[in-house]
Write the structure tokens for this entry.
Amino acid sequence: MTVNIRAKEASTPAESLDILSLYRTMVIARVTNDLLKTRKTQGRFPFYIGCAGHESMAAVVAALNHDDWMSLYYRDLAAWLQRTGDMYGPLREAYSRTTGPMSAGRNMPSHYSSKRHRILPTFSEVAALAPFAGGVGFSLKWHKRNEIILFTTGDGGVATNDFNALFRQTAVHQLPVLMVIEDNGWAITAPSTIQWGGSLVEWAKGGGVYAEEVDGTDTMATYEASVRLVEHVRSGKGPVLMHLRLGLLDPHSSSTDIRSYRTKEEIEITKATKDPVKNFGHWLVEHGYLQEDDIERIRKEVRAELEHAETEILQEPEPSADRVLKDVLRVPTWQENIPRGTKKQLPMLGAINEALIELAQRDPGFFVYGQDVGSPKGGVFGATAMLVTQCPGRAISSPLNEQVIVGIAAGAGMVDGNARCAEIQFVDYHQSAAQTIRLAARILYQTYGGWTVPLLIRTKSGSGGGGPISSGGAGGGAFGHSNAGEQWFTSVPGMITICPATPFDAKGLLLEAARAQSPVAFLERGRLYRSEPPKDSQGNIIAAMAEYWSVPEGYYTLPIGKARRIRIGNGPTSIAIISWGTMVLESCTAAANSVNRYGGAIEVVDLRTLAPFDEEAVAAAVREANRVIVVTEEDDLTSFGRHLHSWIVQNCFYDLDATPSFISALPAPAAPYNATEESAFYPTAKTIEQKIEELLAE
Ligand SMILES: Cc1ncc(C[n+]2csc(CCOP(=O)(O)OP(=O)(O)O)c2C)c(N)n1
């Protein structure tokens, strides 16, 4: 039976609500829940987290259009069914079948995801999808699309930083986002009263987001409110928060004993009054849509269908161990291209400005989002200054919140399939966005390649605020402004990390990084922004490096994962120095001084990409020189440099004639501000020269 009860004033073509189909969807959700709960208890799979009490979410989804986006959480089985109509999917994931539509059996059940149905991939980290949902909303608004995004979380989720980042994204940019807080009164054992103070609705309104409380145990009331609120969002009136009051009919999950934290009376009252499936069934009987007998008949039919589906699914293939490394990382395949533009002398900052202009001109959806980037100054370092003047609107200033920034770029990239750029002022501050970055890098693996997250994170890293290399002090960055950054980024599976040393490489690599379908951390060294080519101690520019300060106009790309091998001197190499970023320049200076003094040749391998790094080039350089030094400006704790050093020991041991050397900054939190301590903290060309002498004598 089809009943059109959509709001008459809706501006989009009204879709009629099939009221009995909605009820059936809710019953499928409940019966699936009960079946899977039992199967878990029977030991058929290790974990289940259910939806009982949350089935009226099907009514919220019924108020959306089919091309609207959704960011669901683990209680949203009914929402999944209402959107996809796929009752096999949740069973397939519970039984870890390769046919599973969310993760091909790789993730826990109840982690909804479907690129086809525009359902973003649910994380186990509560509310962690929130900043991504804001990015989707940002993209929908930017492209003036008539679509909106539904974001859901529980009452506990409201307290997370992630949800608060979404709230700010939607409020500041007035994004087309409907936030539904499914408040069942509990976050495992914690009552919702400890998640926020005062009234959620008033809190939201005070922050610039329209909000309403809705009774989620009444399905028709939920539907009617949803139609109204969806219309509010779609018509451009801004975001909405729906505080949906529900009851949790089961324990938190299959790992929780409900009686250990809830009283018998409270459970009984909840089951008697807050069961949306039961309440909706009564309503349908009262209003003549169903007979009393139909309720049990429908339940039994659904149970039989599900058991039939289960029998089929149990015949389907399970994952094999040989796929465990599939879909960790997507590095673009490089197409060889010869830069044709006229070359001109440029510092790295100029090269980065030019690369951003190229990206904006070639891709109408490209933007840079970050603190101060839209001001005439072009961010605190001026990296977007050209973008601001030449491509108005493409450099957009953000609130002071790194999670907001990364979420906007990541979510927008998921909509477009092309990387959008997040600028983090100083790499030290990536930490407040750490969860969002780590999860962006995990999505490809978690969804078994179902979703990709093209995302470009540019950030100033390492010593210095922009002074010429080896000009005395390293630049006074001190705490909060001078961390190297690669320690963390290279430890995140699924992340590409790039750290260029020269203007030519910075432009070509940045243009290639925008083609990646995995997130990229692009570490721009502060000391290199305005540096000149490295010189030896007599003040002569090192010839092998000079050409990389000459940057072609226009578009060209350089391969990710390929090192640059720089030979200084003539004849066979006596030492291979492996480094990246600023330390490449220091290493070249040290190598040139040594060669000037003793003759021969030293190779400097500029890794350029740290993850994945060029194993072949490193191994070849070690094989030829038989002596190696790894040089990093990271502090001497667990670091990428240590990882590389260990890799060389493990893989190149028989090619070594001497102990593989390691040079880093000192094991302190960061470089102090004063020049004396700062200079003592970082390695310099002098440190490297001394090590070369020691190694040659060994
Ligand atoms: C960031 C984070 N912290 C803690 C957990 C452990 N955890 C899983 S579910 C949950 C409670 C969530 O409560 P709520 O958001 O109210 O949703 P509900 O389960 O009640 O529907 C917690 C604390 C987690 N998964 N993620």
Observations:
- The first helix runs from residue 19 to 41.
- Residues 372 and 379 are 5 Å apart (CA to CA).
